[in-house]
Amino acid sequence: MIRMENINKSFGAHRVLKDVTITIKGGEICALIGENGAGKSTLMNILGGVHQRDSGRIYINGSEVEFATPADSLNAGIAFIHQELNLINDLPIFENMFLGREPVNKWGRLDLDRMRAETEAIFGRMNIDLDPKTMVRNLDASYKQIVEICRAIMMDASVIIMDEPTTSLTAPEIKRVFEMMDTLKKQGVGIIFISHKLNEVMEICERYMVLRDGELVAEGLVTDVTADDLARFMVGHDISTDVLTRQKIIGPEVLRVENLCHTHAFRNVSLNVSKGEILGLTGLLGDGRSELFQAIFGAEPIVSGDIFIEDRRARLHGTEQALNLGIGYLPGNRKENSIIKDMNVLENASIVTWPLFARQGIIDKKKQENLFAEQKTRLAIRMRKNTDNINTLSGGNQQKVVLAKWLPAGPKILILDNPTQGVDVGAKEEIYDIVLRLAEEGMAIVVLSSEAAEIIRLCDRALVMYQGEIQGEVSGDTMTEHDIMRLATGGSLAAS
Amino acid sequence: MHAGTRQEQSRIRGWFESRGAADSHFGTVLVLVILIILQTVVLGFDYSSVGHWFSSWARNWINILRNNAGIGIVSLGMTMVIITGGIDLAVGSTLVATGAVIMTLLDTGPKGLFLKMGLTGIPAFILTVGTAIILGYVLGTVIGLLITKGRIAPFVATLGAMKIFRSVTQHFMQGYNPRVPREFLKISNLTVGNLMFMPIIYWLVVAAVLHYIATRTVFGRQVIAVGSNERAARLSGVNVERVKTRAYSLMGILVAIASVIQVSRIGSMDFANAGSGYEMDAIAAAIVGGTVMSGGRGTIIGTVLGMLIIAVMNNLLNLFGVPPFLREAFKGLIVIFAVLLQRKESA
Lengths: 496, 347
Prior knowledge:
The complex is a heterodimer. Chain A is an alpha/beta fold. In chain A, 33% of the residues lie in helices and 24% in strands. In chain A, strands 6-7-8-3-9-10 form a 6-stranded mixed sheet, with helices on both faces. Chain A has a 6-stranded mixed sheet with strand order 16-17-18-13-19-20, with helices on both faces. In chain A, a hairpin with a 2-residue loop joins strand 14 and strand 15. Chain B has a single domain (62-346), classed as ABC transporter involved in vitamin B12 uptake, BtuC (Orthogonal Bundle). In chain B, strand 1 and strand 2 (195-196) form a beta hairpin.
């Protein structure tokens, strides 16, 4: 049993944790939820030995402990599974299991047989059907997650902290990880489950703890509350899950795609979007929708097919051309595809518009600042100075900055790939609101999302993709989670 | 009281942290100042005749700067290339190739091209410099296109270009060494009040222009964006290939300028050896000045400071009487030391 008592932590003048006390018992899955910036990561980093607390105590089974480094924490039986997994793609599973503490025989050579045997033993105990000789590169995200959990178990972890483990997983993968968590629970391991997905919390967790602005505002048994209650605890007021409404004025067609084919990611895709319309695209991970719209944006080559913008055929060779034709694209996976980490907030927010507003290639500083000031108020971006590094902003605000770089370019069509990924509940609603307003102003919008709920709430109609092809379209009455899932798994609507 | 001290502490820490920020040159300037003080001490401060002391001190400095102007200009282009995440090993060979063209055009001997055409004096010089710059631009662009359109790793593409440019130059020159008109040497050797500082002026002007390009133009900022996160830059509508190609084109132009300075300083060029090792010296200056080899971070001012640090250190080694063969070792040490220091600052 682990108890953190009256933990306080400040970064500079900012108090991140205020007298937080939590307890985690063995054999239970406990959700730690809260908005971005609520202090979840800091609290867990203190438990994981990454950060040092300013005051407070940590007890394991009643005796006080002190973690100066992550290694101390690991030795005490606390394993931290980060979002960015710590596995080496080019090594097989069994070597990954022993990274940093490889057993050697008396000649100093790696004892590969022992590594393989011990890995097999752990997999057996955990009921996992995996060949230890498989290269980690060839595993899907859920199995990578599972390998890392097994590694923690091998090191006798009694508590495992999982930081948003399901963010990049598909539905069947999530199920697999949940089964694993269940096995761990039965073996007496305590799990702290950090997540933004409240339905997952309701499904898998026994207990919940909610942090808001560095304070523990609620805790209790999951059976006593609903997902709505949890959401309310997180933001401090009611939030809606109703379908969002707006003034719908659908104009002429802006984008039409005919029989678009890619080398492998998608085939024979035809679709169209009109002015003022919000089109959804959904499906399971790996369905090809991201590649499809990257191709429409000129970032992926196409094998055959045509793209028409306002009825004019567009031959795209690059993203710069797409930008000039009025296509805007907000990539998924913000950290890898959107954020320029060596640049400040202002520059990240103006990279798209530099060439549009430059005079003879010289950046118009005044215009750059004015445009961003406009977007800052319009999108309600919360930040300090323009010259701060982009990484000092919370996930939601980073996403708004990424959005802000596209808006002054005035795209006719805006493609949003997972616009609310890694964004907390409050910021999510704000982003939905912005998207609705843009549609009202006459922008054609395409939302790519793997969250059916998001598609249903936001979009007028949605196309569901399955293995690179469009499996079907849902709108109005057929736009339900059930129908979307049926199409996304390769079924059809007519069958029902 | 207690809270006051803590606030004070964090204020002081904040000051240091802001000095340690990515684009700040606090550490570099500090090292340079220490070296300059050391150099002044070693040269000896003469209280009795401050005027005399200063004039010899300034003369020493003009010498240092003039000798490093060419490589200083090359290092500025190298900085831009490294920021994009690339590297250019071909600078020395490009220098020789443009140098050979300059000298062939201006040759006072029977093979002199402009002389045959009856073109002499200032118009010939302007045409020569223009041709050199265009050639540098073309060679740089070819390298850039090999890297972007040909998808060859910068290290490999420029390694190939390095071999090709020098070898072809040597083949065409066949050991023939043209002589350039005496007036052409004025470009670098013009004396004003018996001081020769023209190369320094060229270096300063080029540095100022490049600083402006790097901080104020779309191209300059796109270079940083591409180097920091190529994918994000591409998905923001940046033409990554064009930005990279232009960085190498710019590099070629700067090498051509350095070549003009080199030829006009001594009036001759050893096509087999001239400019060899320039790529490493230019990279060293950029690194000492805070440019990160993986791209995305680096400044023109930093590279100028980096070049000065290396130059002053060379001068110091000279003054201390360190044997010439050992001096390269110190250059190596300061590069390694600079990287270690930067890691500490950014941590």
